[in-house]
Write the structure tokens for this entry.
Amino acid sequence: MLNVSNLNVAYGHLRVLSEINVTADREKIISIIGANGAGKTTLLKTASGLIRAKSGTISFEGQSIHDKAPHQIVRLGVVLIPEGRKLFTSLTVEDNLRVGSYLREARKVRQETMDRIFTMFPRLKERRKQFSGTLSGGEQQMLAIARGLMSRPKLLMLDEPSLGLAPLIVSHIFSVIQEIKQQRVTVLLVEQNVAHALKMSHWGYIIENGRIVLSGTGEELAGKEHTKKAYFGEH
């Protein structure tokens, strides 16, 4: 569904990504694992059109997207849920969701999508008239994901969805990601909680210093000595 080939990205003279090759198959969960500063967020931003690649290609459903503007990429069905949520804090929960369905095709089924989201996130339904800036961190993360789903994406990219959240909320967020996949949405996940991410992933990539150093099924990567030492603290 998504194919990243020989991607190179730089900030000025600083090379951030080098010869990145990533594939996301339809209706699968794919994890991108790595330390802070490894280039994970840059990869997602480049795939969503927020950053221009120095070289290489990105295609979605066979169509080149690396030279398209962000709004064009969203229209094709690729949606990024950024780290830090980036909600409209002065708008209510319901209005944030409405903003997420600004595409014409999404507007046609806005109420149907919102009903499904309120089933998935009953807490958001309870707080639908509440300003999003007054929500807890976990509730804001739920709203950020829900707002992305309002556009009816084919590929949902999540950047650190569990960051800073309590363990109970983290478990709920991961169960929601599983449910999203069941709705025939492909998920590309950047996540600091390596064990949890790999456990639920069909395929994963480990990125270090801007390069892919390992790839495999979630189970395979979790069992690698390199993963155990670098990310699980095992020696």
